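User: Design a sequence. Structure:
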């Protein structure tokens, strides 16, 4: 009598492979969501660090960081808080009350051409404060007497001043 060998059929193998692929799909989807949450939390932490550094600067210098070299408010903030320019050289003309650096910036997180501090999605943080180069007044601010700092979030969209649901502000 012939001995029969047991083996998996093609249908059984395909079924097992399909189940594994479906489970891997769930895992990839969950990790993508976790990466998005991590970037949002990173942006919130960086905004809080900027806010703390700006308050320390203002306590020492008595005003919002303004830079006569021009550029965006974000660039002014980076230069004045760190005390260095885009080339890495020490900034000249700092206030006598400057006791920084108030914050250090990773060069990989600065825009190569403008020197702006970038959020986790590679878009510049938006910064606004009383007396900044943009002529911000108390009426333009959400945070009266302090600073507005925000990221446009994962979508990177600025809708002409209208906040989108994924924006990450300090207000």
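Assistant: Done.
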């Amino acid at each position: 009598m012939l001995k029969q060998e047991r083996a998996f059929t093609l249908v059984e193998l395909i079924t097992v492979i399909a189940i594994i692929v479906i489970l891997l799909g769930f895992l990839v989807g969950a990790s993508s969501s976790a990466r998005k949450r991590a970037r949002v939390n990173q942006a919130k932490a960086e905004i809080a660090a900027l806010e703390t550094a700006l308050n320390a600067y203002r306590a020492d210098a008595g005003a919002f960081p303004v830079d006569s070299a021009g550029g965006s408010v974000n660039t002014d903030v980076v230069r004045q808080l760190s005390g260095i320019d885009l080339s890495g050289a020490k900034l000249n003309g700092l206030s006598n009350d400057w006791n920084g650096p108030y914050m250090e910036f990773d060069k990989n997180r600065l825009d190569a051409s403008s020197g702006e501090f970038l959020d986790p999605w590679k878009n510049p943080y938006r910064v606004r404060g009383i007396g900044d180069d943009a002529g911000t007044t108390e009426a333009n601010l959400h945070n009266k007497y302090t600073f507005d700092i925000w990221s446009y979030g994962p979508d990177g969209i600025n809708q002409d001043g209208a906040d989108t649901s994924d924006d990450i502000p300090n207000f």
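The chain has two helices and three strands. The helical segments are 10-61, 73-82.
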